[in-house]
């Protein structure tokens, strides 16, 4: 007789003359299984409840099973990926995603074009390569443009802005804000859009000692880091909502970028978060530099 059959006999036995202790002893099973099963069921209920909450979260609702699993682990839950997958299927939960076409900027044939310089480059630290791009969002109040700068190593968004005008001032604000807040990059990559080939934009990069790189004509994949961010922002957030004003859109994008930088697990970063990777590298290397300075001072 197997263990599960014995347990059913104990539960089904209506003979009150035998105590629980006697029933379990006669069948040779421990009474602790009831406590164990209760604990297992309690754990299962808690995990399922948290999975449900994640699926209903305004940002994490886009998570697939791996990111849900990573989120649970980060919160202290002890659960396997297979169990998360099983529970999601039992609950009928799927990630919420949306898809719409992409947009590219328009080149100016009179401006100088720079060669693509990222081929074969070993991007082994933050601020080695930044890239920038513009995309757009169609709303009930007209077309709104979104520009951003991304760090290739950490995938962190370092600066961004939205506007209803796509001009040089627009991209200059984003560039200058990034340079003000962060150490400057070695290389800055963009497409061949007129805003990025403009005199003022290229001049600013040169004055800061930054090497200019531009995508080959018609090759959006040359700027893949920021193209992937646009896809994530649109599929996971923007296309799932309707906005009544530019201020409402701006606030939602701000919230999404904060989520993306500081909370969203990134597969290519071994499921770390972009700003976690960016800051961790900088802090570690600042500490190394300080230790080296102290050492050389002692030697001197």
Automatic annotation (TrEMBL):
A Gene Ontology biological process term: DNA integration
InterPro entries according to UniProt: HTH-like_dom, Integrase_cat-core, RNaseH-like_sf, RNaseH_sf, Transpos_IS3, Transposase_IS3/IS150/IS904
Domain Integrase catalytic: 122-282
Top-level lineage group: Bacteria
Gene Ontology terms, MF aspect: nucleic acid binding
Pfam families: HTH_21 (PF13276), rve (PF00665), rve_2 (PF13333)
Name by which UniProt lists this protein: Integrase catalytic region
Organism from which the protein derives: Hippea maritima (strain ATCC 700847 / DSM 10411 / MH2)
